[in-house]
Design brief:
Elements lengths: L23 H12 L1 H7 L3 E5 L5 H10 L5 E6 L2 H13 L6 E6 L7 H4 L3 E6 L30 H4 L3 H4 E12 L4 H9 L3 E11 L2 E10 L1
């Protein structure tokens, strides 16, 4: 029997005016984590980070994937409404096997020095939609989806740091669409010593979604 999707029924529809609502890209990431559950549990993670947590659905699901093991699950988002929504979702679902915290920051900027080389699981469903550069962060809602040129302008700020963030054998799960040039992302992070592959894909309307997984050697 598969793991249940965390409930977000406590979040009002008005809250989704400023917080990204779980959608097909969210569920594809959940499927990828569930498919890798045995490998993740074998890794026995101690530090897990979701960047851009939005509603908190993915962070709460990761706690289910880890259960009965315990870990520190940190959820970050630049949007204060998203940080609060994540806190509420964690509290509304049974995540008692993990220690959770929510931090308002871009990527992990507030914790760089402490987390460098210690993250076992890193998750990111980035703002990947191709938009004009000036739409990035124009509103709290836009920060969840507006990705600029090739949908990569926000993501490209993170990618050079991923290998340094991960612990040995650490994993990075990334949501992308074809316009983000996933093969280029694979090549880029492989040059930093990460083993990368496309592990799951799904068509959602006009978008061709994929999950890229990278493992630190």
């Amino acid at each position: 029997m598969g793991l249940s999707t965390p409930s977000t029924s406590h979040l009002s529809q008005s809250k989704y005016d400023s917080v990204y609502e779980p959608a097909e890209d969210t569920y594809l990431l959940l499927d990828a984590l569930e498919n890798d559950r045995s490998q993740i549990q074998e890794l026995a993670p101690t530090v897990c980070v979701e960047i851009g947590s939005g509603s908190g659905c993915v962070s709460a699901f990761l706690a289910k994937v880890l259960d009965p093991h315990s870990a520190l699950v940190l959820s970050t988002d630049i949007n204060p409404a998203a940080a609060l929504a994540t806190q509420e979702t964690i509290a509304s679902n049974d995540c008692s096997n993990c220690v959770s915290d929510q931090i308002r920051t871009r990527f992990i900027q507030a914790m760089d020095s402490r987390l460098c080389g210690s993250i076992d699981i890193l998750l990111f469903n980035p703002p990947y939609v191709v938009t004009p550069t000036e739409e990035i962060d124009i509103t709290s809602e836009a920060s969840a989806w507006a990705g600029g040129k090739h949908g990569r302008e926000v993501l490209d700020l993170l990618l050079p740091n991923v290998a340094h963030m991960l612990a040995p054998r650490g994993r990075f799960y990334l949501v992308v669409i074809e316009q983000n040039k996933p093969d280029d992302i694979l090549e880029l992070l492989q040059s930093d010593g990460l083993l990368g592959e496309r592990i799951l894909s799904r068509k959602a309307g006009r978008e061709h979604l994929s999950i890229l997984r990278f493992i630190k050697k």
